């Protein structure tokens, strides 16, 4: 082969590697992984493929990647989020690339066709799972019989709107306000008729799946880790989404002439101790069915979720919501990494995200924003609760990530020493 032919072959190989790593980075962004973790994972994958100086700039909407500083770069757009089963496939592809278990064309084909993978469960079951997950959140946050019934109806309304928004762009833009308005009309009308107490807090479960809680905390963790541009963008977008939800609630309150005294953060607890474990079970099963997760993974999801909820409750009892959020996030991050060490074939992200969503910082943020608008003098008590809670959860995620990284190094070092001894 001539020198020109050799150079052309090498160029084609580098181009293929760059495309594979770029599409891998795009898929990782779409799973909701923080960009500073994506940078670490892509660097490790690049070293495994023979590129020790991979340059990647990942953001919420696009990825730019080069195989070395000053080299040609590829830019690719991120097209919306992936389900948890698709996130598990992304993790598997990365692992197989690093150990050369699959070639470049196969990896690229699997990454480019990932979004076309059908859901594991029928549409009616995933819709029912949405309602089940919302009911689970209600059993944890506002455990009252009437509140649970309203949550089931309100979450069905939110589900219908979410599915319609996939067909109509205008509805997709206004989805937070429209969903919040309709759910608030339902809850406020019931409260006005004396059928339910704690109206404002009852609004959270039907809307919780749509709320940008994970987005806000991910953004704050990125800012803390130094990914300033992406972190600020996520926090800004999430804050605007919260304001749109609050606008819908306030419009419903004005339409139904709901008194401000009814829009306070009041907790109902009529069902007893069993509501919490039942809520955790409903939330785990509901989220797994919604996200097409294999049923065999549900026990592991529940282990991490129970650990996060237990630590969150412990922290709330010891100090308050901020310590609860910190301990819950630390337990979720560290627990997911421990599960991955025990069962390497289980992707950390799949068992971590349901517990992360359970912390619902966006829900409490919605309470704070709504109360701040209703009581601008500060008498509502909302104020900066969302900032405190989101920061505590972001710090917990960082601490859990550092502890998990240290634990992985210890396990790998022990494994290498055992191999040397044998």
Automatic annotation (TrEMBL):
InterPro entries recorded: ThrE-like_N, ThrE/Ser_Exporter
Boundaries of every Threonine/serine exporter-like N-terminal domain copy: 20-255
Keyword Transmembrane helix recorded: yes
Membrane-spanning segments: 123-142, 148-164, 171-195, 207-228, 235-256, 271-290, 297-315, 321-342, 349-369, 381-404
Signal sequence residues: none
One Pfam family this sequence matches: ThrE
UniProt xrefs under PANTHER family: PHEROMONE-REGULATED MEMBRANE PROTEIN 10 (PTHR31082)
Family, as annotated: Belongs to the ThrE exporter (TC 2.A.79) family.
Keywords linked to the UniProt accession: Membrane, Transmembrane, Transmembrane helix
Protein name: Threonine/serine exporter family protein
